[in-house]
Amino acid sequence: MATSTKTNTALPDFEAATERAREANERLAEVGRKVTSAYLDGVEKYVSSVARFERNVGTQTQVDAIASMFKTHADLTEQITKVSVSAARELITA
C-alpha cells in the first residue's frame, strides 16, 4: 500500500492569509497618509487665506491699534498653524 504525501487542503493557509492582511494594512496606511497630507495642505491654504483677509481688513481701518491687532492675530494664527501642521506631518511620516 502506497503512502500519500498529499497535504490537507481543507485547512486554511494562515501564513498566506497573514501576508495578505499585512499588505492590505500597509495599503490602507499609505492611503491614510495621503489623505491626511491633503487635509493638512487644505488647512494651510485656508489659514493663509484667513490671515490675508485679516491683514487686508487691518490695512483698511483708520485706527492704528485695530490695524496692529489684526496683523498680530494673522501672524500668530499663521505661526501656530505652521507649527501644528509641521508636527502633524512628522507624525504621519513616522
Your description of this structure?
The protein is mostly helical. It has a domain at 33-93. It is built from 2 helices and no strands. The protein has helices at residues 14-60, 64-93. Helix 1 packs antiparallel against helix 2 (64-93). The chain starts with 13 loop residues before the first helix and ends with a helix. The mean pLDDT is 89.
Compact summary:
The chain is mostly helical and 94 residues long.
Secondary structure topology:
Blueprint: H1 14-60, H2 64-93
Helix pairs in contact: 1-2
**Binned strand content:** under 5%
Helix content: over 70%
Largest sheet: none
Give the terminus-to-terminus CA distance: 60 Å
- The low-confidence runs, each spanning 5 or more residues with pLDDT under 50, are none
- How many DSSP H or I helices? 2
Give a quick set of tags describing it.
mainly alpha; 82% helix; single chain; 94 residues; rod-shaped
